[in-house]
## 1
Amino acid sequence: MDTVSLSGKELAAAINTDTKARAIALTEGGAAPRLVLVVANDDPASAWYVNSLRKSAERLGIACDTVDLGPDASSAAIRAELTERGADPDTDAIMLQTPLPAGIALDEVSSAIAAAKDVDGVSPLSLGLLAAGLDGFVPATAAAVVELLEYHGIPLAGRHVAVVGRSNIVGKPLAQLLLAKDATVTICHSRTADLAASTGSADIVVAAAGRIGLISGEHVRKGAMVIDVGTNEAADGTIVGDVDADSVRGKAAGLSPVPGGVGPVTTALLMRQVVTAAENSRSN
Ligand code: NDP
């Protein structure tokens, strides 16, 4: 069987074209949409991600500030910064970067992000709104998986989707989004007794575990669609996913590449959410 590449590049480009037009309209209406990145680490991967977000924002006409609180910032200092930015009328959108300083859990500080500016949907309020099926910002990676499937014309209603990973930023919100699309969802994790049995009966497998090569041909039934969310650094420094592409290719009907699959769509959706937050605040 030929395995189609479920690329995210064309979808990301289309989203970005729309976002840029909306950002220009906001700028012409008074002020460019503004994203604030709050950093409290000295992690190279986080610095790389912040830089790439800044470049994406700039390309789309979105202003982007970075507030660096340093790797020893206290929970109180992080919360104070997030609260201050939440009250600042010039800040439309806030993203808190991870990792956080040792001993600080994300939910300890993310609750200080104002829901209207929480463009990556990480605060307990945003996650609760999603679980309740109410409007709010949704974690961009989870939303990117659904948009990528829909873009490639893969139906979700009534289909069985196995999600491998149950983090608050990817696996759990993705399961909620898929349920809202009437999929039947199985959530797998590190304590799942027989992973291959759970994923092997699914129409769609989403790998979001952060483990190189976790999903191989034996985990996927013939004709299934496979979405690889994993972004892992291999020993040679390249970025690879969670799926052993060689063993899945020829068995799956479709596989999203890493890089070039979920990643660009995630960034595009984040930027779209920044513009949406700005439009919402201007219309209030
Ligand atoms: P976390 O480490 O927070 O969560 C990983 C999840 O995978 C956990 O639920 C864990 O289970 C589960 N898991 C780990 N090992 C296994 C295993 N052997 N079998 C089954 N399940 C397992 O990671 P994130 O959710 O933050 O990220 C997941 C991946 O997605 C990473 O590679 C990350 O880099 C990537 N990512 C990509 C993005 C993109 O834009 N493309 C954005 C965000 C993340 P348990 O809960 O039991 O520990």
Note: The chain is about 40% helix and 15% strand.
## 2
Amino acid sequence: MNKQELWDNFGRTFRDFDLESGIYKAPGRVNLIGEHTDYNDGFVMPMAIEKEITMLAQLRPDRKVKFYSLDYDQMVEYNLDSLEYDEENIWANYIMGVIDEIQKLGSSLQGFNLMFTGNIPQGSGLSSSAALEVVTAMTVVDLHKIKIDGIEMALLAQRAENNFVGVQCGIMDQYISRLGQKGHALLIDCRTNDYQLVPFKDENYQIVICNSRVERGLVDSKYNERRSECEQAVEFFAEKEASEITALRDLDLETVEKYKDELAENVYKRAHHVVSENARVIESQKALEADELKKFGDLMYASHKSLSEDYEVSCEELDILVSLAAEAGVEGARMTGAGFGGCTVNLVKKDRTEQFIKIIKEKYKKETDIDAEVYISNPAAGARKI
Ligand code: ADP
Ligand code: MG
């Protein structure tokens, strides 16, 4: 639907109050490199994708908020003074969470109607939830003319997911959805929350995302297990080396290797992944800045190997997708997201993309009996008013 069609739909859905209105967008994202580094105070490097959520809204003269999900064809209504978790309409909680956090800042809001639609695959690790939070924040803040900078808004959207939705996510998803820029990835330091735009200069390449369509079943329990193994490693190194070590971020590979024989095998392997992955993110930033895309691709393959063998969060299907990419001569490929399913991210020459997708679809189906889904994207813009 184009802008006019969306406004026509909005007009049929809600009464016109002749008050401030606007239309906003926020994208999903894919993490290019830096996996399982965020909770180790390390680095991540996502980019925004050309899939997004679009939201239209208009203020109302009372305390009511009405949300219409175009994709689910569902309407809900609440009062600004009594926002509570909605067990039935889960999607509405992402929106309420953001409103709740804005109200916590002390801003006095008035009611509004909003309608939204999106094309980010949901629950596939491309962060449709962060896009929904960020686009809501853009919408509500702009309609009320509240002053809040990009970082503050990203952190507010993260708090909405932590506090209202109840998912303990890090900062990456909301940061990139809010702060991403066309033609750039974003290097985020998860210790300081600082970020830098990283140019993705070579227009001969694009990013191809392959969805394994394997449900990320084991994620929660394995995630907690990995976190605790990382904590064990930190405790060990803090005792052996220096009490200033508070996260795996503070170690280099040499130190990890030095204690290989003293560490439990799993703990060594987890530390090895995180420490080497942090180094790969920094190397990737340099490679992209120097326009050395092939080098960046090699780092992506190395990241996958480390996630699969050392961190042990891949699965057969993700490994197959990465092997098929290597077979097809693609420059870079790795699993992306927490693992045990979800997507791979691939660095592909534009003129080879069609061929690559054909190979993936055919051979993945043959080996797994699953139809992979494939999305193509250049590094896209972050949230904006349109
Ligand atoms: P992910 O963020 O990886 O896509 P999540 O489970 O964190 O997966 O978030 C997905 C949820 O976000 C959906 O179940 C839904 O509640 C909400 N959501 C995302 N996109 C939309 C949309 N276009 N319309 C309605 N709800 C959406
Ligand atoms: Mg999410």
Note: The mean pLDDT is 96.
